[in-house]
Amino acid sequence: MNLANRITLARIFLVPIIMFFLLVNLKFPHIRVEQFTITYNQIVAALIFIVAASTDSLDGYIARKRKLVTNLGKLLDPLADKLLVSAVLVSLVEMGKVGAWIVIVIISREFAVTGLRQIALLEGHVIAASKWGKWKTAAQITAIIALLINNFPFAFINFRFDMFASWVAAIITLYSGFDYFIKNKHVINFNE
């Protein structure tokens, strides 16, 4: 259990804490500025999410830099990412902040690409993260943060950046999924 894997595990353990702050009504007062409102719960959840999301690059960097890449890390890192993003998105659906269809698109793509990677592994291939996969992650994190903080500061100029970012995340997510399948179609044997 090296440092990189501990950071990855910490990201997994932060998931229920974020969900707690999003879904449990702690009866804290709201912050109100003109038409903008946010709860302390959401602020805490957003801060924890930002910390957790930022550890994604950190654990990978440490593992490569210190030559600590392990099979456990290869398994846990993408799992931690998917748990974090999926859990927060499902919580945001429950809160009425994002459409369920967007979350279904994002989670479905994650299952599909994970399945493709498993098939590739069975065939002796490794599918590396693509640039579109990295853009997908950045778009999803941006959208989630905008949703968590109730579209701050764009709420003051009546621009629904949170919805715009959600649509962009869904489109890039879909495209990146298609990109993985098109570039790795040789891995799938449809004759079996």
TrEMBL record:
One of its GO terms (molecular function) is CDP-diacylglycerol-glycerol-3-phosphate 3-phosphatidyltransferase activity. It is a multi-pass membrane protein. The keyword Transferase applies. It is found in: Cell membrane. Gene3D superfamilies: 1.20.120.1760. The keyword DNA-binding does not apply. The chain crosses the membrane at residues 6-26, 38-63, 83-107, 138-157, 163-182. Keywords: Cell membrane, Lipid biosynthesis, Lipid metabolism, Membrane, Phospholipid biosynthesis, Phospholipid metabolism, Transferase, Transmembrane, Transmembrane helix. InterPro entries: CDP-alcohol_PTase-I, CDP-OH_P_trans, CDP-OH_PTrfase_TM_dom, CDP_ALCOHOL_P_TRANSF_CS, Phosphatidylglycerol_P_synth. Its main location: membrane. It is an enzyme of class 2 (transferase). One of its GO terms (cellular component) is plasma membrane. GO terms for biological process: phosphatidylglycerol biosynthetic process. It catalyses: a CDP-1,2-diacyl-sn-glycerol + sn-glycerol 3-phosphate = a 1,2-diacyl-sn-glycero-3-phospho-(1'-sn-glycero-3'-phosphate) + CMP + H(+). Pathway: Phospholipid metabolism; phosphatidylglycerol biosynthesis; phosphatidylglycerol from CDP-diacylglycerol: step 1/2; Lipid metabolism. Its EC number is 2.7.8.5. Belongs to the CDP-alcohol phosphatidyltransferase class-I family. This protein catalyzes the committed step to the synthesis of the acidic phospholipids. This is CDP-diacylglycerol--glycerol-3-phosphate 3-phosphatidyltransferase. It comes from Paenibacillus piri. The gene is pgsA.
